[in-house]
Amino acid sequence: MKKMLLMAAMAVCTMAAQAASDVVGLWTTIDDETKEAKSVVQIYEYQGKVYGRVVELIKNPGAKAKIKGNPSVLGMDIIWDLKKDDDSYSGGEVLDPEKGKVYGCEIWREGKNLIVRGKIAFLGRNQTWLPNTTCKAKVSNPTPKKPAL
Asked: Is the dihedral of CA 95, 101, 107, 112 positive or negative?
């Protein structure tokens, strides 16, 4: 019986790791107005949830977030607490560091791209993030750090 429970627990852990792997990686964010590359975000999984951390700033390397203490956007978690929900991840939040506003968040894959939806109630806006293969910056085994808002 113990062996069966152990095998079942291992299968669940394996499925959770495989589930997050479809969004985990480095993604280039695109500025809504200029359509230029803005930053690189590392989407990572931690204890069954999905998070996103800014690992490179392309457009404005010294950008500061408009939140408590005006910290650097570089190294900041801007997505946190997303859980697998069918073909997407939802139930978490996303921070727009330029505006200092937090929105409900949902992400999913469309082909090679990642769709990130920030929302308030049923209203929202989608951004398309592109896979990044050139960024060398990456945080190995990150631990989530929700910024002080």
From this structure: negative
